[in-house]
Specification:
about 700 residues, 4-stranded antiparallel beta sheet, Isoleucyl-tRNA Synthetase, Domain 1, about 40% helix, single chain
Amino acid sequence: MPSMNKQYDHSQFEDSIYKKWEDSGGFRPKDGKGAKPYCIIMPPPNANDPLHIGHAMFVTIEDILIRYQRMNGKAALWLPGTDHAGIETQFVFEKKLKKTGKSRFDYDRETLYKMIWDYVEENSGVAVSQMKKLGASADWSRQKFTLDKDVVEMVTDTFIKMHKDGLIYKGLRLVNYCTHCGTAFSNLEVNHEERTTPLYYMKYGPFILATTRPETKFGDTAIMVHPDDKRYQKWIGKEVDVEGLQGKFKMSVIADSRVDMEFGTGVVKVTPGHDFNDFEVWQRHKDEIQGPRQVIGFDGRMTDLAGKYAGMKVLKAREMVVEDLKKNELLEKVDDNYNHTVGTCYRCGTIIEPLPMSQFYVKVKPLTKLALKALKDNKIKVYGAGYGKILKHWLTNLEDWNISRQIVWGIRIPVWYKKGTSKDDYVVSIESPGKDYVQEEDTFDTWFSSSQWPFVTLKASNPGDSERFYPTSVMETAYDILVFWVMRMMMMGLYVTGEVPFKDVYLHGLIRDGKGQKMSKSKGNVVNPLDVVSLYGADALRMALVIRSTPGRDKNVGEQDFRAMRNLTNKIWNSARFVLEFLEESDTKSADEVFLNEVNSMAVAVGKKIDSLRIGLAAEKAYNDFWHWFCDIKIEEAKEGKISKKAMVEGLKTMMIMLHPFVPFVTEAVWEEMRSKGLVKEEEMLMNSRWPTA
């Protein structure tokens, strides 16, 4: 019999073992009616990006679940996919264009789309190959992309269905607009930062009012006070003369309870074209004041309404307006230490401009009602302390969803306008109603397509998958996209299919460095998962990420953790080598049965923890049972002749089965050694072995 290498070298085993797994067809779910279905839909990583440590976390957790359920005889399907990632991919591509002296405006729509497609296609294999390096046992034959033709058609069909059901409308509202990225964002996608900026007190006719944005004064349509503010009662409902930078003008004074009497002087200007609250004020007071006047363009520059400031960038215009207010003795004072919240683009950091646009919206109340009922009826369980309440809060308070995005890279909205007519009149259709029609330029918000991911991927991947695997078993993802993605999948899944898209939601925390700091390039503490795999092996990375992890809580991981789990893989190899090659043959002992019952019970107990999605505790128990019980105690007893070699070999097999979902490569390598010695069936792979039962 061939002897085992003295040391375990992960680099000699991992690629070849993965190839054997994949070639065996073992990643595909079992056929036949006897096997119960178990399905996880992979959260699709960006098709264009390499994996980061957060991706490694979801790959590890989901692979543990799939391997365990496969070993329990389930028809386990882990359906993989990649995401076109809309604005994020276009943003990266535009940065690439900029280096060549070009921009998106140098190309027509079709050319730009094709260029981005080719760019993504060129890099699309990176994420998949890296997931394979981590041991992901997904069924790659079913892999889907969010811009696959069949996926696009189904997403489009959903929009048409929603339109017919009265859930889609086009409305002029303020949107969160990034003038750098050139697109609108939903409220969920805006970062809110505390900043200290000047608060300017301007003379406004008979009033003094405070504002952080004097450059928007050219878009003012009213002056507003609180209806109970005794200081200004005599002015309510009247027009006042105001001296401005463009001469005298008249302005109506209105009353609204939105005014904070303690802010500034208790008088505010109403700018419905550039402030969300002011837009709502206009909707309540349409009979009294004008609608939005847009003084900031989508290019981030002042419009012609700003007079001599037209064409200036916002901050430059603010500077010039303040200077001119001083010159004209219209600036009362400036508070340089005003703390307030500013919205910024989550992609590029540019300050978000609230701008008036006609966009397509989804009426969310009928959808949130379905999701809230599913939660109330316990059809979905959320793993992650407190996140169930957070989910309910968002579903209860969610505003209508802006699904229009002003980018090329995505699924184009299937709306058509007849040439020469108002864009308020449109036809919803997959294909053009005729040559006299032009299609809407905007694309769907990325989350609109990905919210349909569970049922769309199953329908598109393989005949019969939708009926067999939907609803899926677990949705596992990071807690920071609970309201971006999970919530919307619940809403859309229930609306389209009538059933929840998944039964359990497992939210993993963010991965922080060994000191508990958030990873960032500026801090230089970003961990590249592939570097860890190269140095310590995929098993060491996987176990370091999950051991003692808790759903919904961040996890600190550093070099010491990777080394510790590399030591585990060495311990597995060395203990197997001792049992298989150095432990002396002996007769059956009286303690054998007790030992085998104990090791079986340990595997069953680990399995129960996985069943209840206590994955961090399952990993910890598997680690401790193997290291401290099997190695430290039982191998020593076997050396003393208290347990037979035959029993120890059987115990080793059970230990490898128990550890396999967590550290699949080293355990499969040990299994291969046992096969070479005739201790397991020739055709049997550990991946396909049965989990012990009570």
